[in-house]
Amino acid sequence: MNHIAVTVIGHDRPGIIAAATAGLSGLGLNLEDSTMTRLRGHFAMMLICSGDCSPRQVEDALAPLTADGQLEVSARFVPDDDGVGPAGHPYLLTVHGGDRTGIVSAVTREVAEAGGNITDLTTRLTGDLYVVVAEVELPAEVDAPALATRLRTVGHDLGVDVTLRAQDTDVL
Questions:
Q1: d(CA 7, CA 77)
Q2: pLDDT tens-digit map of 89-100
């Protein structure tokens, strides 16, 4: 059984998800992981599917999505998951404040320097309010309260509020 990563990106319109998933299921592929969103009128989707076909077959099956030139589709093999669970403990990182350049870079750099891994990240700009929500995995040996303090300092320097919360406890 193969694992195939599929991306669909381009101008948003109704029915993209329905058409893409119908094409994949028509090939007998199982949708294992996915993320789909609309960003300022553009659609972005990443999927990991499993089944017995090739990336070329996937691209051919999804070719009708690209017929009007508004969407691009790509597919490629990905290695099988080695069965190892999460590399660390789950945390939720949030940032709220005025928009400015460098917020995501500064905050994620601090997480990376601590050995943490960002597993999901979403940003939104609403008026002047900038919001970041990230799922983070931290190795057991990371001093999470110390990291939370460093992140608050980075946030203070940027003029935003940064919070790191263990997914099963209170704010650090």
A1: 12
A2: 999 999 999 999
